[in-house]
Design goal:
The structure holds 2 protein chains of 2 kinds.
Chain A lengths: L1 E7 L5 E6 L9 E3 L1 E2 L1 E4 L2 E2 L4 H7 L5 E5 L7 H7 L3 H4 L6 E5 L16 E6 L2 E6 H11 L3 E3 L12 H24 L7 E6 L5 H12 L5 E6 L7 H4 L3 H13 L6 E4 L5 H9 L4 E2 L2 H9 L1 E3 L14 E3 L19 H5 L2 H9 L4 H26 L3 H27 L4 H13 L5
Parallel strand pairs in A: 4-15, 5-7, 7-8, 8-11, 11-12, 12-13, 13-14, 14-15
Antiparallel strand pairs in A: 1-2, 2-3, 5-6, 9-10, 16-17
Chain B lengths: L1 E3 L4 E7 L6 E6 L4 E4 L1 E4 L11 H6 L4 E4 L1 H16 L2 H5 L4 E4 L3 H7 L4 E2 L4 E4 L6 E4 L1 H11 L3 E3 L12 H21 L7 E3 L1 E2 L5 H12 L6 E3 L8 H14 L6 E3 L5 H9 L4 E4 L1 H7 L2 E4 L2 E4 L19 H5 L2 H7 L4 H27 L3 H12 L7 H9 L5
Parallel strand pairs in B: 5-16, 6-7, 7-11, 11-12, 13-14, 14-15, 15-16
Antiparallel strand pairs in B: 1-2, 2-3, 3-4, 8-9, 9-10, 17-18
Helix pairs in contact in B: 2-5, 5-6, 6-7, 7-8, 8-15, 9-13, 9-14, 10-13, 13-14
Classes of the chains: A alpha/beta, B alpha/beta.
Bound molecules: zinc ion (2 copies).
The site of one zinc ion has 8 residues of chain B, from helix 11 and helix 13.
Chain lengths: 426, 394
């Protein structure tokens, strides 16, 4: 695996390219980019056939063990690779421990073991077992096992434990990695934990850097445990962390970020040199019935909010595409009204159409980011995205306030009528 | 042999010399459909998570929508503004809708049938609603399917009371007249009458004969596939196709298991629909010519074969049984993958039957099909008897 940086912008933002995958000699992944989050090995709601209609080039797929550990038996029998088993032979696979969209109970740790919350309950797993599974999964990229599900509000005690555990487990991962005939050809990524306590976090980085010869990338974790609160940190605080940690890292490492981050956070991270994101954000939007509708053209005024809630009955007779001008399959053929109907009737096609749009559009955000970096206009682009998201956030907060205000009687009466018109499942 | 009208033309291209099977093309406003045809059911204006282009790739030429569901959600207002269901769901090929009556009677316990129509309590606000023949056609005119169904008086197939069956059969004929009179778009949509009479041969024959005198472009055979035994079922199909003329298409409602399709094509049926192939996909069941596979079973956990090595669907080309075993009943993707395979299976079976009818080898095809499906030698009596009635001796 090779990582080449092609262009660095005015700040630390950079355009890079990942190539030389042993299994896929002709594949390349341009960065910054987002992976596609999978569930049991499949991109949620999209079969390989449909995914091929969304992306023509090889994609990076993100495979969390927490939702795919049950593939082990079949994978063992097959003995080839995860990518082939899940029907995505042409994709680059990246295996990791947790799915950032799952909210899991805190605690449950044991010495040098972390809990994985699978569909079949809690499984305690240590570094040896993790690497044994990786030997079966044969991913193209693997994140080391880590105690990574902490938040910025966690204190010194918790972060010290997290870093100690993560360092111990990395030591074993590296040993196993080097000893494995298959895995030594894949990209090993060290995980930065304990981010809530900067001094501890730096210890974790130091430990990763002692393995420079084995490790080709780092993943920033320890920021969020998947909960809403942990994600609402505020962009300023995150900006400092992205900047600080990036400075502590050598340039030639591929830099990953774990977590379901909204577009404003993503572009901020890109500005400070972060390359690859885990793709949990568009998946979360789809599951909520939301569509992302950012305006990427910095010269064009934004007219609509950048997030549409298609559950809203106001789209019932809206025969426009989700996003005018979007080149995705959903927008070229289908309307907001149709998706609204599919959500209302709980039809599976709603998630399919929303996935297609959200994955395409989220990917486009990265395409535009790369173009803007290359033409040294990234900061303008970044602000353009941040502003759109802020505007959406403000509207959200305002709407929340309105709900909290006591309603007048006539408003209550109006609501009642709405409720009685609500369709009921027959 | 051709039957031509502006909204439906039916060209019979080949007739089996032994059985009543025939292959043809049914030209509808939105698409020319090759028959015999299987029509997958997309109840609420969507086919179980599949994109319209996937259905086209699977060679689906006509699909079903349910009037009762569509009339409620999204409702006729939205459908009218969208320009009909074709545009609303972005489906360019042919569509067929049912009358809504069957759903109403089967879904709602409180339905009451009078001469005026089907009276039921709205599940939305408990008010009384009347679905009349006129109302059913009004909704179906708004949905805009190529083929629409008359409202019929639905009685449970296994119902025994002769007087009630007689009343329902005769009322169905009267309602047909009202439907035809209410029809606003005869140049774009075809009303099919429904042959009723349940399991009573005399009433069924009378129903079919009466429908034959009406100005209609095709016929549906209804009141079957409702829990009756196969020995009771096939003679009613045989009787119906024997009375209905050869020139117009015949549609057997609610039938879609592979063996039923083969037998009923031999009995002279041209069109079928059934929710089974897509519904069973949700439970992890895959259809094959040797029967069904339940992929949830542990024996598939290390099976690296595709569902069916002779199937060329996108699922069989890409995925192993072992992987499907990991995801069935858990991920929506599994449901999509099995729906694709199961629809492909149905389509391939129909395609094979059309080819064999055209090549004059349909009886041989039936022999081979039956022998493969019942490779243990236990061929059900009804299969032997029904095929014997059209000259195939198994
Ligand atoms: Zn789109
Ligand atoms: Zn198949």
């Amino acid at each position: 695996m090779r990582f080449a940086i092609r262009h660095t912008g005015c700040n630390a933002e950079r355009v890079g390219i990942l190539t030389g995958f042993t299994r896929l000699p002709n594949a390349s992944i341009e960065t910054p980019s987002a992976a596609l989050l999978t569930q049991s090995g499949s991109v949620a709601h999209l079969t390989a056939e449909v995914l091929a209609k969304v992306f023509s080039n090889p994609q990076l797929v993100w495979v969390p063990l927490s939702n795919s550990a049950h593939l082990e038996t079949g994978l063992k029998a097959q003995g080839e690779s995860l990518a082939k088993f899940i029907g995505l032979s042409e994709s680059v696979t990246c295996a990791t421990l947790h799915c950032m969209n799952d909210i899991t109970p805190p605690g449950h740790f044991e010495v040098d073991m972390v809990p994985v919350w699978t569909k079949h309950g809690k499984k305690m797993i240590n570094a040896e077992r993790y690497m044994e599974l990786m030997e079966v999964f044969k991913p193209d990229i693997l994140l080391a096992i880590a105690d990574s599900r902490t938040t910025l509000t966690d204190g010194l005690k918790r972060n010290t434990k997290a870093v100690d555990r993560t360092c111990n487990m990395l030591n074993i991962c590296v040993k196993k990695y080097k000893a494995s005939n298959y895995l030594k050809n894949s990209l090993l990524v060290g995980v930065i934990a304990g981010t809530g306590t900067m001094s501890k976090c730096k210890n974790c980085i130091q430990n990763i850097l002692t393995y420079r010869e084995a490790i080709g990338g780092v993943a920033l974790a320890g920021l969020t445990d998947g909960t809403e609160e942990s994600l609402n940190i505020g962009i300023d605080k995150l900006e400092d962390i992205f900047k600080d940690i990036n400075k502590a890292l050598p340039n030639d490492l591929v830099k990953f970020i774990d977590g379901c981050w909204s577009p404003d956070v993503v572009v901020t991270a890109i500005q400070y040199g972060w390359d690859i994101f885990d793709g949990s954000y568009p998946a979360k939007l789809t599951n909520a019935g939301h569509a992302l509708a950012l305006n990427f053209d910095v010269n064009q005024a934004t007219t609509e909010l950048c997030l549409l809630d298609l559950n809203d009955a106001k789209y019932k007779e809206d025969f426009r595409p989700v996003l005018e001008g979007c080149q995705c399959l959903s927008c070229k053929k289908h309307t907001r009204a149709y998706i609204c109907h599919l959500l209302n009737t709980r039809e599976m096609l709603a998630s399919v159409l929303l996935s297609i749009h959200n994955l395409h559009h989220f990917d486009q955000m990265f395409v535009h980011a790369r173009n803007n970096i290359a033409s040294n206009t990234f900061v303008i682009y970044k602000n353009h995205i941040v502003n759109q998201y802020m505007e959406y956030k403000q509207m959200q907060d305002k709407a929340k306030e309105n709900v909290e205000k006591p309603e007048s009687e006539s408003e209550q009466a109006k609501k009642k009528i709405c409720v009685s018109n609500e369709p009921v499942e027959a | 042999m051709a039957f031509k009208t502006p909204s439906l033309s039916f060209f019979v291209q080949a007739e089996c010399k032994t059985t009543r099977a025939r292959s043809g093309v049914m030209k509808l406003p939105h698409y020319s459909v090759k028959t015999p045809v299987f029509m997958p059911v997309g109840t609420q204006g969507t086919m179980k998570g599949l994109l319209p282009e996937q259905l086209e790739d699977l060679d689906c030429e006509i699909i079903l929508g349910n009037t009762y569901h569509l009339g409620n959600r999204p409702g006729t207002d939205v459908l009218e503004k969208a320009g009909g269901l074709h545009k609303f769901m972005s489906w360019k090929r042919a569509l067929l809708t049912d009358s809504g009556g069957f759903q109403m009677v089967s879904l709602l316990k409180l339905a009451e049938i009078t001469e005026e129509g089907v009276k039921f309590k709205s599940p939305y606000d408990n008010s009384e609603i009347m679905l009349t023949p006129e109302k059913s056609i009004e909704i179906q005119n708004c949905i805009g399917a190529d083929i629409i169904m008359q409202l019929d008086d639905v009685v449970q197939t296994t119902y025994q009371d002769y007087n009630r069956i007689k009343e329902a059969t005769e009322r169905t004929s009267r309602w047909l007249d009202r439907c035809l009179k209410a029809h606003k778009r005869p140049s774009e949509q075809n009303i099919f009458p429904i042959v009723q009479g349940l399991l009573n041969g005399e009433l069924r024959e009378k129903s079919a004969r009466e429908h034959m005198t009406k100005n209609v472009n095709g016929f549906a055979i209804g009141g079957l596939s409702g829990g009756e035994s196969k020995d009771e079922f096939w003679p009613m199909v045989h009787l119906s196709t024997g009375v209905l003329d050869k020139y117009r298409p015949r549609y057997l409602m609610g039938v879609g298991m592979a063996i039923d399709l083969v037998v009923c094509v031999a009995l002279g049926v041209d069109m079928f629909d059934c929710v089974f192939p897509t519904r069973t996909a949700r439970f992890g069941c895959a259809l094959t010519s040797k029967g069904q596979l339940n992929l949830k079973q542990k024996k598939y956990s290390m099976d690296l074969n595709p569902i069916d090595k002779d199937c060329n669907c996108s699922t069989c080309k890409t995925y192993t049984r072992a992987y499907l075993h990991c995801i069935v009943t858990m991920e929506t993707v599994a449901c999509h993958l099995l729906s694709v395979h199961n629809i492909a299976f149905q389509m391939r079976l129909m395609q094979k039957m059309r080819e064999n009818i055209e090549n004059g080898t349909f009886p041989e095809f039936v022999h081979n099909f039956v022998n493969e499906l019942y490779s243990n030698g236990n061929i059900p009596c009804w299969v032997i008897n029904s095929l014997k009635s059209v000259g195939i001796h198994i």
